[in-house]
Design goal:
mainly alpha; globular; transmembrane helix; endopeptidase activity; CAAX prenyl protease 2/Lysostaphin resistance protein A-like domain-containing protein; CAAX_protease; Rce1/LyrA-like_dom
Length: 225
């Protein structure tokens, strides 16, 4: 029992540290964005820090994820080939994500719900530094978030391939994903949590994190248009 608790605590620490690393890279880019209009030279240095931090983190995330799967992989996650059936299933999941975003945007347009504060920050960064923020939000961020919230989280804490473990894993992963995007309990949390639940389901269904990353990327690209 003691060894199990120690192992779980160590896993929590690892996930927290990886999330902090991801937030640090994001903070470098946010600082570059805020300086872009007043101090371009310093902004360029922070862009450099963002690129270096992101490259190191991408390598670290990939290495740790592959190492974790090699050590314990009861669900047999890995690389599954893209068949016509999986392609249509992927398109269906993306259509559901698009539908969620569309309904939510209409609720915002008609002033039924407020615009997510997280999205306001993203939009502000894109306005200040369009190219680098768009690249980061549409490529780097989906990789980091899917590896943390789906790859590591579900593999570490809900690794048993049972109905109870799968349902709880999807629910908790999506809820944490939603809360960390809002940092409050409100209706906006439900938006991000629903996207997190869909992505968690995708990970367990396809058993290949690349499908998740692609879904997340497409969703962010759609949001940036």
């Amino acid at each position: 029992m003691g060894s199990y608790l120690n192992r779980q605590i160590l896993r929590i620490v690892w996930i927290v540290l990886l999330f902090i690393g991801y937030q640090a890279a994001t903070a470098f880019l946010s600082t570059a964005s805020s300086l872009a209009g007043t101090n371009p030279d310093l902004a360029a240095k922070y862009i450099g820090l963002t690129l270096i931090a992101s490259a190191l983190l991408l390598w670290l995330f990939h290495w740790l994820y592959q190492k974790q799967l090699a050590k314990n992989n009861p669900r047999h996650f890995g690389h599954t080939p893209l068949t016509s059936k999986r392609l249509w299933q992927f398109i269906l999941l993306f259509a559901i994500m698009f539908g969620i975003q569309l309904v939510w945007s209409q609720l915002i347009v008609h002033h039924i719900l407020p615009s997510p504060s997280n999205q306001k920050l993203v939009d502000q960064g894109v306005m200040q530094l369009p190219l680098w923020n768009t690249i980061y939000d549409c490529i780097a961020a989906p990789y980091f978030e899917e590896t943390i919230f789906r790859g590591f989280f579900l593999n570490f804490f809900f690794s048993k391939n049972t109905l109870v473990s799968n349902v709880l894993g999807v629910f908790v992963s999506g809820l944490i994903f939603g809360y960390l995007h809002t940092l409050s309990f409100n209706w906006t949390l439900l938006l991000y949590a629903s996207l997190g639940w869909l992505l968690s389901f995708s990970y367990l269904y396809f058993k290949d994190i690349r499908y998740n990353i692609a879904l997340h990327m497409l969703n962010n690209i759609l949001g940036s248009i």
